[in-house]
Amino acid sequence: MKRENRVLLMVLPLLCLLLLSAGEDFFDKGLDFYKQKRFLLAIGAFKNAVEMGNKDPRLFLLLGNSYVGIDDYDKAIESYQKGLQGALPMAYYGVYYFNLAYTYGLKKLYPQAITTFDQALAYDTNLTYAYWYKGMLYYKLKDKTNTIREWETYLIVNPKGPQNENIRRALELLRDPNFAFPDGLVQNPMDKSTNQPTIAEPLVDISGALGDYKPEDKEKAEDTSLEEIEK
C-alpha cells in the first residue's frame, strides 16, 4: 500500500470523529438556545449540526419547533418531513407526526392536518390532544358529526383533560337540533391572534422547557449571528 493511502486511512477516522464532535456541540448549543426561546440562534445551531452529520433523533423535531416559534411554518413542515424520512426510533414518529399535523393546522390545511393527526395516533395513542384538535379542525370545516365524534372521544380517552369543561359546553350546543355554525363557539388555538403567542403548549415539546413559545429574538432567520452560535 502506498504511503499516501496509509496516511489517508489514518486521517479519515480522525476527521469523522472531529465532525461528529462538532455536530454534537452545535446540537447542544441549539438546545440551549431553544430552551431560552432564542429560536433564530437555535435554528442556526441546529442547521450546523445537520451539516456536521449529527444524528440525534430530536434534531429535526426541535428545528421544526424553532421555525414554528418564528412563524415560518413552511420551513417547520420541511424539517419535520426530513426527520420522518430518516431512521427514527419508533417512539419519535408519533411526536413528529403530531407537530407536523399541528403546523398544517396553523397553515389552515385542515384536511391534511386531520389525516396527519391520525398518523400520529397510529404511532402513539397517548397523544390524546389530537382528538381535541381534530374536533377543532372539523368545526372549522363545519362538519358537526365529526366534531362531536372527536370531542366525545377526547372526553373518553382523557377524562381529566384540561379542556373537558369547555368541550362539554360546546357539545351541548352542537347537539342542539337548531344548531348552526356561528363564529366563536370555541376558540381555535390554531388561529393566529395578535394578543397571544402564535402557538401554545400542546405542540409537543420533548425538552419540557418551553410552555409559552414567545421568542426572545425576532430578527429574520438569515440574520442569525454565527459568532454567537460558536461562542
Brief summary of the model shown:
With 231 residues, the protein is mainly alpha-helical. It is 62% helix and 0% strand. The chain is built from ten helices and no strands.
Structure description:
The protein has 231 residues and is mostly helical. It has a domain of 98 residues: Tetratricopeptide repeat domain (Serine Threonine Protein Phosphatase 5, Tetratricopeptide repeat). The chain contains 10 helices and no strands. Helix 1 runs antiparallel to helix 2, helix 3 packs antiparallel against helix 4 and helix 6 runs antiparallel to helix 7. The longest helix has 33 residues. The chain is elongated and about 60 Å long. About 13% of the residues have low confidence.
Compressed to H and E, one letter per element, the order equals: HHHHHHHHHH
If you compute it from the alpha carbons, what radius of gyration comes out, rounded to the nearest whole angstrom?
Answer: 21 Å
Distance between the termini: 42 Å
The amount of helix comes to 55-70%
Anisotropy-based shape: elongated
How many helices? The count is: 10
The number of E-state strands comes to 0
The major β-sheet equals: none
Task: Indicate the structural class.
Answer: mainly alpha
